[in-house]
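Translate structure to sequence.
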């Protein structure tokens, strides 16, 4: 069993005393980084639809990419999903579980283990960067991420905790895995909407739950009860597991 999550734009550049690993697609990453280095600030601002300040930050990042400091991915990413994972409070064996069972999808790195060493960047998977392989990053990565995930999932089960933008890098291609989608919904009167902010944190909490409980089977996921969520058998259907809670 393997789970996937999206990365985050929020990052914390802080050294961590832990053994790191090398990203699987580092050669592809370097190709993309060289491409991105060709953009000026205005070009990045338009490409990424970001402010001038953010464009300047990421221009500087790509210009100095070759010599930039490296950090373990799950410690560098600090957005909502990673707040849910809260890796700083996990035990060594739980971090080992994540490094074996969790993959972080990335526009620049393709797919990462939590302890892969990476450099600070911003490059979302949905970015329409025309490159030598096609019109966007989905074309750039092609089938590489899908084949990698198929190889990594020993029991052919993938738990999808990623956003649609990122899961598109391996779906809807014909993937030789059984994919389970996980949804987190808030009860509001007689409706159960997905609220993005809460869902992102909950996706990270599910990854944490898997690590803390050494989850090896899909059925074990149904015991997830963090932050007031509970498995909703009525709303769950097929390979979509739905968890709900009373609106906060």
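Result:
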């Amino acid at each position: 069993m393997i789970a996937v999550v999206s990365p985050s734009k929020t990052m914390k550049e802080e050294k961590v005393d832990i053994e790191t690993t090398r990203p699987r697609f580092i050669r592809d990453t370097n190709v993309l980084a060289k491409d991105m280095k060709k953009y000026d600030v205005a070009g990045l601002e338009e490409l990424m639809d970001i402010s001038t300040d953010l464009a300047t930050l990421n221009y500087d990042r790509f210009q100095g990419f070759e010599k930039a400091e490296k950090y373990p991915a799950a410690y560098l990413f600090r957005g909502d999903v990673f707040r849910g994972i809260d890796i700083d409070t996990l035990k060594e064996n739980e971090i080992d579980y994540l490094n074996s069972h969790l993959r972080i999808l990335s526009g620049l790195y393709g797919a990462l283990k939590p302890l892969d060493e990476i450099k600070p960047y911003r490059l979302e998977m949905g970015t329409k960067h025309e490159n030598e392989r096609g019109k966007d990053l989905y074309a750039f990565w092609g089938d590489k991420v899908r084949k990698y995930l198929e190889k990594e999932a020993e029991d052919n089960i993938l738990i999808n905790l990623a956003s649609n933008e990122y899961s598109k890098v391996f779906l809807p291609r014909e993937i030789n895995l059984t994919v389970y989608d996980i949804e987190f919904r808030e009860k509001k009167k007689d409706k159960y909407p997905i609220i993005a902010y809460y869902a992102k944190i909950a996706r990270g909490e599910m990854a944490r739950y898997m690590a803390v409980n050494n989850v090896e089977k899909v059925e074990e996921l149904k015991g997830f009860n963090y932050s007031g969520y509970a498995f909703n058998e009525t709303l769950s259907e097929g390979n979509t597991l739905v968890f709900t809670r009373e609106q906060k």
